[in-house]
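It is worth pausing here to work through a concrete case rather than discussing structure prediction in the abstract. The textbook approach is simple: state the sequence, then state the predicted structure, then interpret. We follow exactly that order.
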Amino acid sequence: MTRMSGKMTRTFDAKSYTELLVRHQPKPIVTEAENARAIALAQELEHRSPRTVEEEVFLELLLVLIEKFEEENYPISTVNSISMVQHLMDARDLEESDLIPILGSETAVSEILMNKRPIKHDEARKLAEFFRVEMDLFLESDSTD
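Step two, the predicted structure:
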């Protein structure tokens, strides 16, 4: 660790990062099975606490690979905001109840997933932060909220 302006900061260990790369051998994702494995590994890393600096960088790389695969295989233009939420939940094996802390209530989650109301601007922001995606994915083009 290095001391900078009174704070301890962790330094990047190239050897440790190289070991992660060798162990997992990340590459562009081309199949659903590879995507599922990458998502599972990303979830494992996301839930690890504390993560090393090297694991943070590796997780970021995984998320870029997953995002690229999903952008190419799930075009956004054919998906509405509700189905995007459902897809992201499915990809991460989440239940409706997992969204209650993000959206604030069981009613809000239910209304959105049953397409009884659009996702509000603030809810879209919270979902984007939770799923680590762009907020626009959750906003309908005619949304004024």
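Step three, interpretation. The first helix runs from residue 14 to 24. Helices lie at 14-24, 32-47, 53-73, 81-91, 100-103, 106-113, 121-131.
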